[in-house]
Amino acid sequence: MNTNKNQFISQQVIEDVCEWEIMHGVAFRQDDNTARHVPFSIAPITMERPVYSHLLAVTPLIAKLVSNVSEDHEFLQESLRDMAKADPFFGRLIELHQQAHGDVSQSDEAARQSLLLMRTDFMDDRQHGAKVIEFNGIAAGMGPFGQRATELHRFVKDQWNDVYNAWLEDDSAVPADNQALEQLAHGIATATNKVKMHFSALDDENDQQKPTFLMIVQKGEDNVYDQHLLEVALQNRGVRTVRRTFEQLSTQLSSGENKRLILNGVGTIDTVYLRAGYQYSDYWAPDLNEPICCHTLSQTRLFIEKHYVAMNATISQQLATSKSMQMLLTLMPAEDYARWGLTLEEAQLVKSVLADMKPISTETIEWFNSSADKKEWVLKNQGEGGGHCVFGEDISDTLTKLKPEEYDAWALMQRLYPHERDTPTIAIRDGQQTLVKDLVSEIGLFTAHYNGDAVTELSGYAGYLIRSKPASENEGGIHSGQGILDSLVLI
Question: What positions does the domain Glutathione synthase substrate-binding occupy (predicted)?
Answer without folding.
Answer: 212-320
